[in-house]
Amino acid sequence: MKKLRRRKIEERIFKLFMLGSTVVVIGSLLLIIGTVVIKSLPAMKLSMITQTPKGGYYLGKEGGILNAIVGSLYLASGATLLAVLLSLPIVLFLNIYTKKSSAFATFTRFSLDVLWGIPSIVYGAFGFIIMVFLGLRTSLLAGIITVALLEIPIMSRAMDEVIRLVPEALKDASYSLGATRLETALKVVVRQCLPGIVTAVLIAFGRGIGDAASVLFTAGFTDNIPASLLQPAATLPLAIFFQLGTPYPEVQQRAYASAAVLTLIILVISLGSRFLIRRFAKHMIK
Amino acid sequence: MLLLTAVPGVLVFLMLFGLLQRSRAILALKSFSHLLFSSSWHPLKGEFGLFPFLMGTLWVTLAAMVIAIPISLLTAVYLSEYAPKFVRELAKPMVDLLAGIPSVVYGVWGVLLVVPFVGKTLAPFFGTYSSGYCVLSGGVVLAIMIFPTIIHVSLEVFSSVPNALRETSLSLGATQWETVKHVVLRKGLQGIIAAIVLGLSRAFGETMAVLMVVGNVPKLPHSVFDSAYPLPALIANNYGEMMSIPLYDSALMLAALVLLLVVLVFNLAARFILIKAERKAE
Question: A22 and B108 in contact by Cβ < 8 A?
């Protein structure tokens, strides 16, 4: 009997540890979001998001973070577009044109996994090499190329996971009606998987807009809104990074505001993709 | 489409090749092992010893792993074996969200909360002095960043353990924790190792958040309250001046190459373990 009691106590102790750990994990998320919100509330004025910084982003005390917001949106949109143009054909090819057991497909999936694990600072260094190779300067274009490379594995893996689940019967039905493989891919498979594909795009966009290390070398930083692809662009993550390090509290406010805007964008994307999955899941042919 | 599909495979090699090409200038002058194990970092004198930075990365990564492994594994076990359905449904998106938060935001949080806490509360408590910008702060921030990776992979591993095995164990009179300990964890051991290695490689390459809280002093750390200067932070901090000092850019590209190689090895190992475990399960 004594032994049974010891076993029950062990059970209780570990259950307590597990509950504690879960609370720590969830708690840190709430703590992070809470800290950013509380710190940024006093900084949130309309001028913050409608003006560019006045007198230099590092020293000037007036103005807002419009340059970084617009720069980040340009950069992430461009990179995501480029990544979609590359990822979608890759994933469709893997799932429709190659056999399940093909060594080429296995190798490509494996490579995507490996690329997914490469740290963004290495993408930054590699992007820098490409930039020098192409004779570009730090610019929106160089940033877009680098971030697109970073997004491809994320997007492709997420798309692959949904497109893999398309039932064979659906494809067979399309073939039997005389559709070619390309028609099947674009008109049946893409349509069937649209919510999944959009979610993959959103996830990649979120990663792209939040990444600092990859754009540090390539996109540059500026007080202005870029007017062409060849001009440098400010980004929210770098706006946070640079402006937090200044001795002026007014400038630090801009860093907090940038952090809040960035976190808000990530939250909206995360909730949005969840909503999309629920909303469209019922239209899919099972 | 075939050509495009070859891109991911080629890209890995292209990255290795590109970084190697750019770091050849410095490798021509000094041997790889000398650069890796020399502690003298004086770019103006042309000395580029990466050892302090390598150790900085190791210290911070190790600190993060010590914190992250038990907490993430216990959370994963709770969510997969104990938690009621609604808790699981509620917790999973939150873990995903934690993975989605940009690393600079983690950095801001670290500067605002973790650094003062470590510097003003924790260090005096242990009777030492610390500015707060130290290995421990980096470890704490990094640990939270890799929670989602370890939890996510572990959850998948646990869900692949057949329920029949759990029921057998329970029917023999084992408590739920004993079932977890002897059946679930044992069956999923390989997968758990893979999860940890994936977390480790994520921690190894993480840049911005660590850079913001770890102090960036190029010296070997001797305790968790010392500052450190990890490899990724070195690359990120010096991009501005690297073109003005000879060989500097080459040394930084070598640092990136070392980082890439280490992460590649970790990743390959983890993927192989996962593939092997999957085959065994079938």
Answer: no
Helix (H) / strand (E) containing B42 = strand B41-42
Q: How close B149 gets to chain A, by Cα (Å)?
A: 11
Backbone angles phi, psi at B30, to 5 degrees: -130, 150
Tell me if ipTM is over 0.90: no
pLDDT digits (tens, 9 = 90+) for A27-46: 999 999 999 989 888 877 77
Q: What is the dihedral of CA A72, A74, A78, A84, to 10 degrees?
A: 70
The Cα angle at residue A171 between residues A170 and A176, in degrees rounded to 5: 100
Residue B78 near residue A19 (C-beta atoms within 8 A)? yes
Q: What is the domain partition of chain B in residue ranges?
A: 54-239+271-281
Q: How far apart are CA A119 and CA A86, in angstroms?
A: 20
Query: What tens digit of pLDDT does each residue of A132-159 get?
Result: 888 888 889 999 999 999 999 999 998 9
Residue span of the structural domain in which A11 resides:
2-43
What architecture (CATH level 2) is domain B54-239+271-281?
Orthogonal Bundle (1.10)
Q: Tell whether A286 is covered by a domain.
A: no
Q: Do A93 and B2 touch (CB under 8 A)?
A: yes
Q: Are A219 and A232 in contact (CB under 8 A)?
A: yes
Q: Which two three-digit tokens encode residue B141?
A: 């921030």
Measured between beta carbons, the chain A residues lying within 8 angstroms of B261 are: none
A215 and A256 fall within a common domain: yes
Tokens of A225: 């809104």
